[in-house]
Amino acid sequence: IVTSRVARRFLKNGNSEMIHLGAALSFRSKEANNENSKRTVASNGVTSMFGNPMLNAELDRVTTEWKGALEFLYTNSSFLFQGEYFLNRFNRQGRLEDFSFHGGYVQGSYLIKGKKGFSYDSKHAIVGWPISEQAVEMVARLNFTDFSTYIAESGGGRELDISLGINYYINQYFGVKWNCSYVYTGKLRSSFYKRNLFITQLRCQYIF
Fold first, then answer.
1. Which of the chain's ends, N or C, has fewer CB atoms near its CB within 10 Å?
2. How far apart are the first and last CA of the chain?
3. What is the pLDDT of residues 149-192, one digit of tens each?
4. b or e along 69-85 (b: 16 or more beta carbons within 10 Å of the residue's beta carbon)?
5. How far apart are CA 83 and CA 106, in angstroms?
C-alpha cells in the first residue's frame, strides 16, 4: 500500500488571505488484496441516522485499487471557499467488470460575527474553526457522489445534495451546528430511498 499527499499554501496581503492547493494519490496492490478479497464501498450521504447507505457497492475478487483527489481552499478574514474532487478505481480479477466511482463537493462560508479568519493546521494541511471565540458562520455546500458504473440492481446510482447551515462556535473547543439539506435521490437504485429528502440536523461538536 502506497499513499502520498502534497499541498502548497500561498499567503497574501500580510497573511490575511490564503490559498491552498493539494493532491493525493493512493495505490493498493494485488498482494494487499488476496484473490477472493471482498470490499464494500458505501456512502451515507448527509446523514448516517437511517442505517441504510444511499450508495453501496459489494465487490469481490478485487486485485488493485487506485485513489486520487484534488483539493482547493481559499480563506480571508471573513470568507472561506473550499472544494475537492476524488476518483476511485477497483480492478478485479478475471472477466469481472472493474468498478470506478467519483464525487466531490464545493463549500462556501461567511463569518457573520468574529471576522478574524480561520485557523489552519500546517502539519496536516487542513483548515480549522474560526479564530475568534463566539464566532457565527453561515455555510452553503453542494455535494455529489456517482456510483453509476455499478451494474447491480441496487446500490448504484448518483446522489446529489445541497445544504445550508449556520454554526455557532462558543469557544475553541465547543460548537453548535444546524443545517438543512435537500437530497436528490432520483438517480439512486435503492429500495429504501424512493423520494427526494429534506433533512434538518442539529449537532454539538466538541474538540479535545
1. C
2. 30
3. 887 766 788 999 999 999 999 988 999 999 999 999 878 888 78
4. bebebbbbebebebbbe
5. 4
pLDDT per residue as tens digits for the range 105-135: 999 999 999 989 999 999 999 999 999 989 9
Please, which pLDDT band fits residue 34 given cuts at 50, 70 and 90?
Answer: low
Quote the pTM value: 0.89
User: What is the rounded distance in angstroms from the CA atom of residue 129 to the CA atom of residue 140?
Assistant: 16
Cell triple for 136: 457565527
C-alpha 141/C-alpha 33 separation (Å) is 35
What share of the chain has pLDDT > 70, as a percent?
Answer: 96
Render the burial of 173-195: b for 16+ CB within 10 Å, e for the rest: eebebebebebebeebbbeebee
Contact status, residue 149 vs residue 184, Cβ threshold 8 Å: no
Distance between CA atoms of residues 43 and 13, nearest Å? 40
